[in-house]
Each structure stands twice: as structure tokens, then as C-alpha cells.
Automatic annotation (TrEMBL):
Belongs to the acetyltransferase family. GCN5 subfamily. It comes from the Eukaryota. Residues 4-159 form the N-acetyltransferase domain. This is histone acetyltransferase. It is found in: Nucleus. Coiled coil: none annotated.
Amino acid sequence: VKFQVVRNDSKRESLMLLLGLKNVFVRQLPNMPKPYVTRLVFDRKHESTILTKCTSSREYVVMGGCCYRPFLEERFAEIAFLAISDSEQVRGYGTRLMAYTKERTKELGLTHILTCADNNAVPYFKKQGFSKTITLEKERWQGYIKDYDGVTLMECVLNPKVDYLN
Ligand code: ACO
């Protein structure tokens, strides 16, 4: 398996990976409107950490990923979608994907990750170091993040001294 950061830079390879990721999200997050998922995944302000697996025919298949928007000035990222394909869940990939995402956002100089977690994903996010207690000053995220019914706003504080991949 391989983890990589992918943005919509109009390159064919990036677009193919983002398309594969969009399909995983649509399948794993059935409550999310498909056009909304597509719009954010291909949005140029968003980027994604993508997990691919090499098949026997030496093709890379997208097994999951995490799509987020880095707010560079406010120094936080908001995770929009995160999912691992059905057949690959509960094998530790979700944990590795989050570690990779933390390392990437840390490298961008960000200090926090926020997400509106589906209520059933709250235990997963807790295991990844997210908390329901938001310490990021409201002025930094207000207006960017909409909290709504059925989701829980959660936060992870990034420690610049920690190597999340080790
Ligand atoms: N409820 C409780 N515990 C969970 C859940 C859950 N829904 N999902 C995973 N866990 C636990 C696992 O049992 C494991 O526990 P352990 O460390 O004690 O063994 C731990 O979380 C991590 O498991 P991984 O194998 O690393 O995670 P996995 O590869 O299964 O990925 C994920 C987790 C991404 C949540 C996956 O289950 C998934 O794609 N679910 C469907 C889509 C989804 O709900 N996405 C999040 C929506 S919220 C949002 O997108 C902002």
C-alpha cells in the first residue's frame, strides 16, 4: 500500500486518483449528497491524503483517503470526508491514514485539525487523538465551519515536536 497527497492540479494521474477517492466516499458515506462530495474532492482549495493498493495487474486502486481543506492563514485544517473501503476496514489503515494526514498538515505549519464527525465515527476519531473539547480560538474557525445536527465538532491539536509516522 502507498499513501500520498493529491490535489487537483489538472494532471491526469491526480484526477484519476481523486475520482477513485470520490467513489470510495460516495459508497462509504451514503448520507452525503454525491454532487457535494464530488465538488469538494475536486475543489482546488482542498487536498487529499490517499491510500492506494497495487493489484496483481500492477494497477493502483484507491482504498481510501481523507479530504481536507487547509486554512493556511488560520493555521488549521478541516477534514471534510474520510473513509476506507469496506473490504479494507479494521486493518489499521484508518489509523495510518490519520497519522499520515497529521504529518502532512503539521508540515504545512498547521496547529489544529477540526472535523464535523458523523456521530458513529466519534469513537474512531477519539482513538486518533480527537476531542469534543475545542481549544482553537473561535475567531480562527468561526465562519469557516458549520456545525449541524447528526455530527459532532471535534478537534485534534498537532504537536510540532511529534513525528506522527513513527
Ligand atoms: N466505531 C467504533 N470504533 C471504530 C469505528 C467505529 N465506527 N471504526 C473504527 N473503529 C476502531 C477500530 O476498531 C480500531 O480500534 P482499535 O485500535 O482498538 O483496534 C480503531 O478504530 C482504528 O481502526 P482502523 O482499522 O485503523 O480504522 P479503519 O481502517 O477501519 O477506518 C474508518 C476507520 C475510516 C472510520 C472506516 O471505518 C470507515 O471508512 N467508515 C465508514 C465511513 C465513515 O464513517 N467515515 C467517517 C465519517 S466522518 C467524516 O468523514 C468527517
